[in-house]
Amino acid sequence: MAMKIRLARGGSKKRPHYSIVAADSRSPRDGRFIEKLGTYDPLLAKDNENRVKLDLDRAKYWLDQGAQATDRVARFLEAAGVSEKKTRANLKQGEPGKAAVARAKEKADKAAKAAEAPAAE
Predict the structure, then answer these.
(1) What is the pLDDT of residues 40-59, one digit of tens each?
(2) 72 within 8 A of 79, measured Cβ to Cβ
(3) How far apart are CA 101 and CA 107, in angstroms?
């Protein structure tokens, strides 16, 4: 059975509240889980100690049993010192989109024409 440590969403519309659970990877996001490991409240301030509550001993147990943490839960575990920090690379984050590239090219062409026009006179 493939195990995941992941978030299960609760709360009402536009007021999310998540449970951190150990669940079978085939079960639905908010469906059946094996054990509740903690909670996550994204509406609280980042420096609030109640934002993420996690039972670290049980999380270590499930990781030792072969459970895979999702990206968000892995970040919580890294912050708590349970797992080592992974290197992440968002290679496309700094690149401009197609429209921005086209606008920059047009602007450069206009600037080149404007530089040539006074030189011709």
Answers:
(1) 999 999 899 999 999 999 99
(2) no
(3) 10
Question: 66: Cβ–Cβ under 8 A, 6 or more apart, which residues?
Answer: 3
* pTM for the predicted model, two decimal places: 0.69
Please state, in angstroms and rounded to a whole number, the distance separating the CA atoms of residues 69 and 74.
5
How far apart CA 37 and CA 121 sit, in angstroms, is 76
Q: Which domains does the chain have, with CATH numbers?
A: 3-80 (3.30.1320.10)
Per-residue pLDDT tens digits for 6-28: 999 998 999 999 999 999 988 88
User: Which among 41, 40, 1, 47 has a CA at the least distance from the CA of 21?
Assistant: 40
Determine whether 19 is exposed, middle or buried from the number of CB atoms within 10 Å of its CB (0-12, 13-18, 19+). Answer: middle
Predicted confidence at residue 119, as pLDDT, reads 56
Q: For residue 64, count other CB atoms closer than 10 A to its CB.
A: 8
